[in-house]
Amino acid sequence: MKIKVSKSRQIFLITNFLIMFMVVFVTLYPFVYLIAQSFSSDKAVAAGLVSFYPIEFTITTYKYVLSKVEFYRYYANTIFYGIMGTLISVAGTAILAYPLSKSRLRLNKFFIPFCIFTMYFSGGMIPNYILVAKWLNLRDSMWSILLPGAISTFNLLLMKSFFSGLPEELEEAAAIDGMGVYSIFAKIIIPLSKPIIATMCLFYLVGLWNEWFAPFIYLDSKDKWPVALWVRQLVEGANNVEMGSGAEESQITTTIKSATMVLTSLPIICVYPFVQKYFVQGMTMGAVKG
Prior knowledge:
By secondary structure, this protein is mainly alpha-helical. The protein has helices at residues 7-38, 42-46, 60-66, 69-100, 108-120, 125-135, 143-146, 153-164, 168-176, 181-192, 194-209, 213-218, 227-236, 247-250, 252-286.
């Protein structure tokens, strides 16, 4: 049986399709252009001939970037910051969010507004620098990247909302069986919180992977730089890449930025599909109850 669709419904579907198509196009085109530019020659990019596909296809830029020893060092630093920072941040957020989710704790009336206050107001860049570099003595230390911004207030509130939505009967039954608070948290709450934990891991990992400002102001040693800071220096022209005068290397001057950004973005793009189902579930369940 063929279902008749009204004219107003058809107009809505067509309009909805056009809007979604434009959103997808605006979202994907910059990355598609970046990939096309990275595989094109410098002359084609300079002439503005590159749009959706490479012009004068070449992989010289990628050969040049991948031949640089410092690229692998910066990449290794980024992986270290991403993994260690995510572990520290997720653990700290979960440990703080769990007691905040218990309305029976009286001090939460103070701590929750206090946490929310920090989301809207901060001490500023100079006080933060004095705190991290002078008082904590973390200047030129990898911990200056991992510890100061370890817990995000937004992520904390999201995880708190998720914990609040879990049935309290499970904790009460476990307590009757003799389990303590720490055992309940580790053996019951954490296994039930895989969606929100996966969401937090994605949020923190993306933030740490793209972080360049904190390393820029706290790290003096270039061997501790993340790859995002190196890319930033390339884009801004602050880091003059030493290159020969050969024809092969002369093509790299413009496209090296695009190739480096593509190589930097690939790991996050590859990770996202595996955590997408947890991401959607964690976001929806974490926003149900506040």
